[in-house]
Amino acid sequence: MVKTKIAVLVSGGGTNLQALLDAQARGDIRNGKITAVVSSTPGAFALERAKGANVPGHVVNRKDYDSRESFTEALLGKLSELNADLIVLAGFLYILSPAFVERYENRIINIHPALIPSFCGDGFYGLKVHEKALEYGVKLTGATVHFVSAEADAGPIILQKAVAIEEGDTAEILQKRVMEQAEWKLLPEAVSLFCQGRLHVEGRIVRIDQAE
Ligand code: GAR
After folding, report:
1. For a pocket test of ligand 1, which of 9, 11, 15 has the largest count of ligand atoms closer than 8 A to its C-beta?
2. How far is Cα 55 from Cα 73, in angstroms, rounded to an integer?
3. Is 128 helix (H, G, I), strand (E, B) or coil?
4. Most exposed of 62, 179, 200, 202 (fewest Cβ within 10 Å)?
């Protein structure tokens, strides 16, 4: 079987990218290979992580484009040049244009640090998500891996994991717990399932084939 070529899109620190690179090093991304990391920010630490794992890093700088459309057009150009089969958004700050999503229908995976449909959508990114969960007073939050559709954080859900909120949590403490207990496990698992051809999208529902 030909390996799925994975391009990971990042904007920041890249701990989820690191989880993917570590999973790959352990042989846990079955039938897939991370062939490129594309950053929307030239200084993103995620690019250092890519370099450390000998994965080519690329920059499509959001600041070089005056609209979402022209930026995602440039990203599309880069990804087709890279021949990517699967796009993984790992802490990618920008919402992709409908044209982009259509081009890679059910081939873009995103990680979100909450239990969708809570605390998600436009403007819910990074620490902000955890601040909102704490403000609301929920007792459980978590992470969601989903396919990307035209509406932000509204595509078919692949995997979710709940994480408890504890007395005295700050957004930073909660973010770390959600990453450790949920995000860094769920994202490599979902990517590996995709690469093995075990995810089937039926409307909003993602059916997962059992391992043989
Ligand atoms: C992660 O918590 C990720 O789930 C979140 O940003 C963080 C990026 O950290 N993504 C979103 O909020 C998307 N709406 P990382 O760069 O260390 O992976």
Report:
1. 15
2. 23
3. helix
4. 202
